[in-house]
């Protein structure tokens, strides 16, 4: 943790590229950082609701600010994200992001960094941390539902959190994307001993998953709760609007449900829909990630229990990830 007179007094703002973030962060190190830092700083970081502006009928600009009121964590930051879904016709990503980090002591600009890559790491590592706490210790099979930009990060985060995983099965609506991702991961030296494969039979592989991780924009439930095996851990990352849902009501009913933060109770389609249909009440959601880390709420109680973790993201983990990138960038004496 930075002290009040340490890194934030760096004289000149720095730019930290996507390549630099990849060289600075590992999923294991960021999971550890969240585990140790979230309980210390979450109560002192202010995160207003994200601001969403329509810049055209189909395009939008999102602003996500956060700032610390504690001198022991002297940072504030803003993530800026553009959503241009029509970019697919130009063979360009639909989402682009930047993160700007400031000193909360002096207000000076400290760094600008690639917000897209930062978000991929922080999102996957929040899920990895939840998996470390909630998934069975003897988990062997990870099922990855979705093969987009977030999928390889989620796979790496779950492998870092649960190194006993031996098999990863990937499903995607476009199966070529799933098979291509499996082939890419098979080439990585650090995953020797792990079997990567793709399978188009989604219901069949759901039944096999000790951990089932979902990162899609689906508005139709993909994971049917009746298919979840006893003792499974279900990780839901994709939905952030009421119209989206990656699992059905039965999955929510069967599982003990946890969230990354309270925003999930009002944003996530799986939960909002379940509340409206009286499948569960808000009070049935057991707790959030900080409460799990602190032990204020009990995670997995036995080997047969199904656990569900729903994440929607927050400015707290954004600024914690940016802090780690910035401080390590300075330690390494980098100059992009």
What is the compact description of this entry?
The chain has 336 residues and is α/β, with parallel strands linked by helices. The chain is built from 11 helices and 15 strands. Helix 2 (27-41) packs across helix 11 (315-331), helix 3 (115-134) packs parallel to helix 4 (150-161) and helix 3 crosses helix 11 (315-331).
Describe this structure in words.
The chain has helices spanning 18-24, 27-41, 115-134, 150-161, 175-186, 202-206, 249-254, 264-267, 269-276, 289-294, 315-331; strands at 14-16, 45-46, 51-54, 60-68, 75-83, 95-103, 109-114, 141-145, 167-171, 195-198, 211-214, 233-236, 256-259, 287-288, 307-310. The protein is of the alpha/beta class. It has two domains: 7-118 and 316-330, ornithine cyclodeaminase, domain 1 (2-Layer Sandwich), CATH 3.30.1780; 124-314, Rossmann fold (3-Layer(aba) Sandwich). It has an eight-stranded parallel β-sheet. Strands 1, 2, 3, 4, 5, 6 and 7 form a seven-stranded mixed β-sheet that branches. Helix 3 (115-134) runs parallel beside helix 4 and helix 3 packs across helix 11 (315-331). It is globular. Residues 1-6 have low confidence and may be disordered.
Span of the ends, CA to CA:
24 Å
Residues in helix, %: 25-40%
Tell me the name of the CATH homologous superfamily of the largest domain: NAD(P)-binding Rossmann-like Domain
| Architecture per CATH nomenclature, i.e. the level-2 architecture of the largest domain | 3-Layer(aba) Sandwich
H-E string: EHHEEEEEEHEHEHEHEEHEHHEHEH
The CATH class of the largest domain is identified as Alpha Beta
How does the helix and strand content classify structurally? alpha/beta
Number of strands: 15
How is the largest sheet built, in terms of strand order? 10-9-8-11-12-15-13-14
Strand content of the residues, in percent?
A: 15-25%
Our Rg estimate from Cα atoms comes to 19 Å
């Amino acid at each position: 943790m930075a002290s009040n007179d340490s890194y934030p007094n760096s004289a000149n703002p720095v730019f930290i590229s996507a390549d630099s973030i990849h060289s600075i962060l590992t999923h294991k190190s960021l999971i550890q950082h969240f585990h140790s830092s979230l309980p210390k700083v979450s109560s002192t970081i202010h995160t207003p609701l994200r601001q969403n502006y329509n810049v055209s009928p189909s395009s939008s600009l999102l602003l996500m600010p956060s700032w610390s009121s504690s001198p022991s964590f002297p940072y504030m930051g803003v993530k800026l994200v553009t959503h241009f879904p029509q970019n697919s016709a130009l063979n360009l990503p639909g989402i682009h992001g930047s993160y700007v980090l400031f000193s909360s002591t002096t207000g000076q600009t400290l760094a600008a960094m690639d917000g897209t890559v930062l978000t991929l790491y922080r999102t996957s590592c929040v899920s990895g941390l939840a998996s470390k706490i909630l998934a069975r210790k003897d988990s062997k099979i990870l099922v990855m539902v979705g093969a987009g930009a977030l999928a390889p990060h989620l796979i790496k985060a779950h492998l870092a959190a649960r190194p006993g995983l031996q098999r990863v099965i990937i499903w995607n609506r476009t199966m070529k994307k799933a098979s291509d991702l499996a082939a890419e991961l098979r080439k990585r030296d650090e995953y020797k001993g792990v079997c990567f494969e793709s399978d188009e039979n989604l219901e069949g592989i759901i039944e096999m998953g000790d951990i089932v991780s979902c990162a899609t924009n689906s508005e139709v439930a993909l994971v049917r709760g009746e298919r979840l095996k006893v003792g499974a851990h279900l990780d839901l990352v994709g939905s952030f609007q009421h119209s989206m849902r990656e699992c059905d009501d039965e999955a929510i009913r069967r599982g003990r449900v946890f969230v990354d933060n309270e925003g999930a109770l009002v944003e996530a389609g799986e939960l909002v829909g379940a509340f409206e249909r009286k499948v569960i009440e808000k009070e049935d959601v057991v707790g959030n990630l900080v409460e799990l880390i602190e032990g204020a709420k009990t995670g997995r109680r036995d080997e047969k229990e199904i656990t569900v973790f729903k994440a929607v993201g927050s400015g707290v983990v954004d600024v914690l990830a940016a802090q780690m990138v910035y401080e390590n960038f300075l330690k390494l004496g980098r100059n992009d």
